[in-house]
Amino acid sequence: MMESSNEDGATFTIQLACNEDLNQMTDLILYTFMKQEPMTHSILRGKNLETTYGDAVRKTVETSIKERASTVAKLPEVAGLTITISVSLSQYLEFRTLIPEFAGAFKALYEARCEDLPEKFLRLRLVTVSEKFQRRGTSGKLVDDVINRAKQNGDLAIVAEATGIYSQRIFANRGFRCISELKYSEYKDEKGDVVFKGTAPHSSLKLVVLNV
Predict the structure, then answer these.
(1) Statement: the pTM of the whole predicted model exceeds 0.85
(2) Per-residue pLDDT tens for 89-103?
(3) Which residue range is the domain that position 71 belongs to?
(4) How far apart are the first and last CA of the chain?
(5) Which of 46, 80, 94, 96 is the most buried if burial means most Cβ atoms within 10 Å?
(6) Count of domains in the chain?
């Protein structure tokens, strides 16, 4: 457990998530992350996220809690969260996603530079913060905690897919380097149509790596 403060002085603890956090974490992903993350927003806007993805998101959160792979910032409600997973390169290259439109984009992103990835690493799957605690430094504190935990656990590297300018800035400020980039305006389906529309001000998906 780590005690920290965001930029307006609010004190919160960053700790491993537990079962009592399950509902708040699920809601935070469904109603904040999936509505704000540019790729998800582009594909799913106007759809009922709870009906379509509620069960799958809840299962993902339950698994992450069970495997001690998620952290939360609490004050005392859940203000933000991370989900990580330790993977091998071969497992990563077989990565699948809940949203079919994402599969090709992620495959194009990481297969282009898979030689730059270590054989085993910690994948930072998700970072999200409640709207009322955004732009106060909470996301950065959560990422700092992931980095510290990775060092303690002997992970060689942390890999993340940064889909927007805010997460890209947070990662860059902590020494993550971009090894691959996919421009949203250039990624098209087999009919030649742009897949991810209306993503401004976010312009690209970046694969970022930090050696720890």
Answers:
(1) yes
(2) 888 877 767 777 788
(3) 2-211
(4) 20
(5) 80
(6) 1
